[in-house]
Amino acid sequence: MGATGCGSDGGDYNPPGANARVGPVLIRYAHIAEPPDGPWEKGDDAPFYVWFFNQGQEPDRLLGAETTVARSVDIVDADGAVRGPVVLPTGKLVELEKGRAHLLLRDLRQQIRGGDYVWVTLRFERAGEIALQVHSQVPTYVDEDATDAPGLTSPSAQ
């Protein structure tokens, strides 16, 4: 299976994250977001983003997650409110990412810098559990509005 870029400029695209499979559930781009102004500090809440694709015959649900680097891991809505399990219908991509429901590592027990790796265990209703070694995204420190500076392009620019 090959990887391709997400633009028409022919540039390389190296998406962050761990990729895995547990039962029929594909896990893609699992990573901890890196804040734009430095590492996550002890006591911070850090977003954890991941995509799922359920290849099974039955829907599944992400019930939760845990890690030793945070007090807890919650499934939250885009506004940070705690919500219940995430339904993973068959044959559909479910993206837990910025601006949508995602996982939140609450009350970090240590500093996490861009490029650091931590273990996170995901729990599914049908597929079971899987422990992933995921990294904190290496920061780009690019202002999303800085599209007029040479070499800087907003991620949303087409």
From TrEMBL:
Pfam families named among the record's database cross-references: PCuAC (PF04314)
Xref: InterPro entries: LpqE-like, Lxx211020-like, PCuAC_sf
Protein name, per record: Copper chaperone PCu(A)C
Lineage: Bacteria, Bacillati, Actinomycetota, Actinomycetes, Kitasatosporales
